[in-house]
Amino acid sequence: MIELFFPAAAQLVIENVQIKREKLNIYARGRSKKANCPVCLTQSGKTHSRYQRHPQDLPCLGLRVHMHITVRRFFCQNEHCDRLTFAETFPELLVYKARRTQRLSRQQLAVAFAVSGEIGRGLLSALAMPLSGDTLIRDIRQTPKEQVETPRVLGIDDWAQRRGQTYGTILVDLESR
After folding, report:
1. Burial class (CB within 10 angstroms; exposed 0-12, middle 13-18, buried 19+) of 93
2. Residue 15: its H or E element
3. How far apart are CA 66 and CA 26, in angstroms?
4. What average pLDDT does the structure give for the chain?
5. Is 165 helix (H, G, I), strand (E, B) or coil?
6. Which residues of the chain have pLDDT under 50?
7. Residues 93, 69: contact at Cβ < 8 Å?
């Protein structure tokens, strides 16, 4: 059943799930025994150390979800590589140093674009995905702009509503209308 919540590509093993004070805590670790160095792509299985990441995830059954992921650091075994150690990653779930999962960030961004800052903050709190209004505005500003294609065939029309006073111009992409 846990596969419904986490994609198989996330490579996580769920060790424990606890409910405490209206919060669902999920304890997990990486599934694979080896990882690739991000610089030289050499595979390593020699563990250096472990540390914890504590990202938030989408709510479940009306409860806030906090993950506690044990991340391993590995020694890079390529002596010509500049990196001595590196950490295993979970790119399908988390971005480097993120405190929210990608899917939670996408949902919060959708609310931010729909209702904006302070109203979004109140709505997200009611949905068990709390985030400040300032962070919502920051997320909107950091979203890359859509690339608009330059039209190849352009139609132009001018008109006047009252002679000598108000003019208008319309530009139409004749291929896409």
Report:
1. buried
2. strand 12-20
3. 6
4. 87
5. coil
6. none
7. no
